[in-house]
Amino acid sequence: MNIHLLTIGDEILIGQIVDTNSAWMSRELTLRGMRVTGNSSVADTREAIIAGVEHAARNADAVIMTGGLGPTKDDVTKTTLAEMFDAQMVFHQETYDRIVAYFNKIGRPVSPAMVGQATLPDKATLLVNKVGQAPGMWFERDGKVFISLPGVPFEMEYLMTCEVMPRLLERFPTHPIAHRTLLTAGEGESNIARRIEAFEDALPPHIKLAYLPALGQVRLRLTGVWNGAVKTDSVMRLNTELDAKIAELEAIIPDLVYGREEETLQQVVGKILLAQGRQFGTAESCTGGYVAHLITTVPGSSAYFPGSVVTYSYEIKTKLLGVRPETLTRFGAVSEETVREMARGALDALGVDVALAISGIAGPDGGTPDKPVGTVWMAVSDRERMVVQKHLFGRDRLKNIQLTGTYALNLVRKFLVGEV
Amino acid sequence: MNIHLLTIGDEILIGQIVDTNSAWMSRELTLRGMRVTGNSSVADTREAIIAGVEHAARNADAVIMTGGLGPTKDDVTKTTLAEMFDAQMVFHQETYDRIVAYFNKIGRPVSPAMVGQATLPDKATLLVNKVGQAPGMWFERDGKVFISLPGVPFEMEYLMTCEVMPRLLERFPTHPIAHRTLLTAGEGESNIARRIEAFEDALPPHIKLAYLPALGQVRLRLTGVWNGAVKTDSVMRLNTELDAKIAELEAIIPDLVYGREEETLQQVVGKILLAQGRQFGTAESCTGGYVAHLITTVPGSSAYFPGSVVTYSYEIKTKLLGVRPETLTRFGAVSEETVREMARGALDALGVDVALAISGIAGPDGGTPDKPVGTVWMAVSDRERMVVQKHLFGRDRLKNIQLTGTYALNLVRKFLVGEV
Q: What is the per-residue pLDDT for A71?
């Protein structure tokens, strides 16, 4: 089945926001075996919406619209859709009650605009929005499906996951499809490609490999589409085949793999700490708390993470971590000697079993000829062992912080399991 | 003049990359008074490209295509364009020489594929690409312009800036357009809409207001299009009019506005700290270092941010911040009493002039009937004054952390300028 994604609203056309919704939807639909054949954006005027929807429907079985449903601007989108699908706008008590209950729950006053939010085309099947105000709408015409969703990302994601995709799969059955993802850190796409070239060349045509690179990480995703007759055991056999292939792939690059599927490095590190019963803390300079933030995005991280210190200045490095002033003046804050003392100091200051210390030059200023912007030292220690690494990243401040976060968490992971 | 942006290639349709090119082009074109009336993505097949270009041209004076020009996949795009514009594919020696010189400069071997890169439709005006291999192409047909650019972001940006936009402005003189953006925090879209309803209703037709919401923040953008005859002072008069309108808007909601245009809350807070010559630090529990991370994403933040402590456990709160064990056992970690002691402790521990303390229940677990998930206490103090706030956010851990970050930075801003 073919799907067209249509974004309604000016924000994208004038470039004030980046269209991350379409990327999210494309990825999730593709993963479920549906095909996104096109996407487009139109302004939120009656004429633009009509032209956009008609164009979208030309080569697609389903059109998924996002945006144009906020409390201040939903009139045009909804009334235009009502006109296109020959519907009347009616007040919907159940939706109104749900909006009022939602506002009460989050402790906000209910505004008169909410009556407008609950006035909806009567031909639409309403998709209940449990995380926001505007419900999604599902229309059918001439065998095609037209879906309208709010543009707020987490509301769109909730409605797509819980309402839209299950209904689409029921309405348009597809060939079984399955995925396996291997997570790697610390090596670039082209070097990985060289190491797994023979594996990739030997893949059968119904299994495809995709490289999904992010900062410091590459996800390797195998997608298999069942290409025989669909029988009761087809899904099981496809899964078995993919399990074997992904194990084969992991065996070629065991040193790069940190996990599978949707795990994050911080989740993997958390699981190991929990299993080993060890307490962990960080002493961060150039990352400014970013690694502590990553660690604490994981629910339940308080079980192994009592705390952290962000030591930007010399004084705080000395005061909180006991780094010797002589070390700082002699070797500088960005040096092997300093991160070693920071790691040792963090073990005591935080009372943890394992500590990570980071000091570097995030940029854009502050570099010197022998310590250019992007130089980062990191150390991890458990009192018995201390492992130190030096990296040289780029010139972009935010990228340097994020790359350091990835490399540091991967270093901690390898330290914990004895790979370094 | 109306422009349609067309992205060619699978990467966007399968959700592998986010389309940041369209956002960049839309913003830059809009800023120069050109109007992006639509954008779309198609696969890199002959049929999809032809259908995409014809649709794009229907309501636009110019179509700007990106992608489909890489060394491994440029054949389809270029030959399809040659077919559409009745051109022949010819080898272009000058382009070939430029590619060879470029490869020599970056120290890479020249591959045979480069001959293909230099084979181009003879009807195209070539746009010289000084930062990459593939030149841009400019076609004209029936009074409309069709431009093809490489999809690599910095090559596209170079060609747009140095070649495409100057030519477009010469080819299609436009009406002046201008924007002003007001940044607000701490109030939702619908409540803001109610407070500024009279202002919005009284706007002249050539000035439009847009609400751009994000977590805990709403940007209010005024867009003005000059609607009189274009004279030498038109741009100046439009800007003057918008300056007056944005000042009028700010005067209605001064309590919500934290900045203008592209600023972030952490930049605004940093600027105030720098101007006041004050040192700032954080003591974070449920945000786990996220606020420190936000603060330190700003270049030069070391001038006012010596450091921070992340105190997840009771023990660390006591050890690093001197929070009394009795306070923790009697009132709990998530309480007014605890954040007060944390803020006081942070002033001393970090040796700063102003400290922010945060303690809450990020979730998804750990809530109780009287302290549900999403409960957050925050305090800001400078030894003389202490301001404490309690918030109740939602159930999503990451959203709670991000909302707390926004509200906390806004509280610090108001505290620094004496608004609380």
A: 66
Closest CA to B320 of B341, B305, B334: B341
For A:268-287, CB contacts with B below 8 A are 284, 287
The CATH class that applies to domain B177-260 reads alpha beta
Q: Are A55 and A40 in contact (CB under 8 A)?
A: yes
Q: What does residue B336 show for φ and ψ, rounded to 5 degrees?
A: -60, -45
Instruction: State whether residue A52 sits within 8 Å of chain B by CB.
Output: yes
Q: What letters, b where the CB count within 10 A reaches 16 and e where it falls short, cover A312-349?
A: bbbebbbbbbebeeebbeeebbbbebbbbbbbbbbbeb
Task: Sort strands A62-66 and A2-8 into parallel, antiparallel or unpaired.
Answer: parallel
B19 touches chain A (CB under 8 A): yes
The identity of residue A141, as a single letter, is R
Q: Who wins on pLDDT, B234 or B163?
A: B163
In CATH terms, A2-171 corresponds, of 3.90.1330.10, 3.40.605.10, 3.40.980.10, 3.30.160.100, to 3.40.980.10
pLDDT, one tens digit per residue, over A122-159 is 999 999 998 888 899 999 999 999 999 999 898 999 99
**Percent helix, strand, coil in chain A (nearest 5)?**
45, 25, 35
Q: Can you tell me the mean pLDDT for A260-286?
A: 97
* Element holding A372 (H helix, E strand): none
Q: Is A337 helix (H, G, I), strand (E, B) or coil?
A: helix
pLDDT for A330 equals: 97
| Stretch A221-228: mean pLDDT | 89
Q: Where are the domains of chain A?
A: 2-171, 177-260, 265-416
Binning pLDDT at 50, 70 and 90, where does residue A288 land? very high
d(CA A329, CA A326): 5
Provide the whole-model pTM.
0.84
CATH dotted code for A265-416: 3.90.950.20
Please name the residue of chain A whose CA is at the shortest distance from the CA of residue B215.
A152
Across the interface, whether the CB atoms of A23 and B23 are under 8 A apart is answered: no
The structure tokens listed for B31 are 């800023």
**Element holding B414 (H helix, E strand):** helix B397-416
Instruction: Provide the shortest C-alpha distance from residue A240 to chain B (in Å).
Output: 25
Instruction: Say if B18 is an interface residue toward chain A (CB within 8 Å).
Output: yes
Whether residue A289 lies within 8 A of chain B, CB to CB, comes out as: yes
- Among the partner-chain residues B36, B212, B307, the one whose CB lies closest to the CB of A309 is B307
Interface confidence (ipTM) of the complex: 0.83
More confident of the two residues B152 and A420: A420
Q: What per-residue confidence (pLDDT) applies to A111?
A: 79
Q: Quick check: A376 and A393 in contact, CB under 8 A?
A: yes
How do residues B71-80 score in pLDDT, each as one tens digit? 655 578 999 9
Q: Cα A368 vs. chain centroid, distance in angstroms?
A: 35
A327–chain B Cβ distance below 8 A for any pair: no
Average pLDDT over residues B178-199: 94
A290 in contact with chain B, both atoms CB, cutoff 8 A: yes
Of A17, A350, A365, the CB nearest to B316: A350
Minimum CA–CA partner of A362 in chain B: B299
